[in-house]
User: What shape does this take?
Amino acid sequence: MTKTRSGSPKVWKIAPGREASHWDVCREKGCIAIGWLSKDDLAQFDGEQAIRKALKRRGETSSAKAINMILAFRDDVRQGDIIIANDGLSKVVGIGRVVSGYLSPKSRLNPMRHEDEYTQVRRVEWLIKDNRVELGKSCFRQDTVYALNDQVCRIVRKAYERQNAGLERPLRKLFDAEYAKNHLGPADDEGETDTASPYRASPIDQRQANNRLILQRRGQQAFRRGLLRRYRSRCCVTACGTIDVLEAAHIDPYRGKDHNHLDNGLLLRADIHTLFDLDLLGIDPATLQIQLHPLLAGQYKKLSGTKLRVPDGGGPSRAALKRRMKRFIEKKANCS
Assistant: This one.
């Protein structure tokens, strides 16, 4: 396991192409990009086997190492992490901080979406981008994506500080965890609350009403990002993998940040989210089977009896599902 800086953002070495061939465009467009599967949305792949098949289908290297690097770029790199862009084994071309989640080749937020290659993207605020530095020895592996240890990070920092003393302060800010937290907020792929603690519903409405009496849902964006990560960017009911139509649904109604616990959430396609909010779709807490209100017909009938898609060893709070199912049953009874 790679040793990372205690209390600091994770530091990744990501090569912007062989011999930094795509550094100029990455710097200009504020991103870091990798070249695998340039036409595919990585979020659609459930795991290693699916990625391996896609790589083979496109005639690309399907080694275990390549697959692990693709998954690391998609799942493990987080907002606030540091990217060191390299040229070969001993040169650094830029350093920046990640400011987005994974962006697929077709995402409207992807600045590389019109390119023919290197279209798998994370947006990056490049804080050091006009100063290349030679480290004086081979410090990097040939791997495109991997987390750096403390020793290499110190070597990179000292090399830049020797080259330009004025970079000492921006480098300190760049590697400071508290600075990242204050400037960027929660990580893109994390929920707002600590999932190590069990979810408990709060009876108190903690929302704050503004002068238009609109209830603000604070932390909703981070909540969605956490659910995207937990459910691997697929709808829990339909398996839809189109990220732009996936929404974060609360099982117990939202009353404050405590309800943004991932165990109180489901990742649902927009129309399924609406049905769930209207209690026209229920989830049996014991079997996780989908139940439909008699009013629903047509395309939704095929969902009846299917099981909720949940990750191994995790999933929603059964207690919250039980409370929600009670509402569904009551609405169904009132219809008869």
Summary: The first strand starts at residue 11 and ends at 14. Residues 1-7, 183-196, 206-219 have pLDDT under 50 and may be disordered. The chain has nine helices and eleven strands.
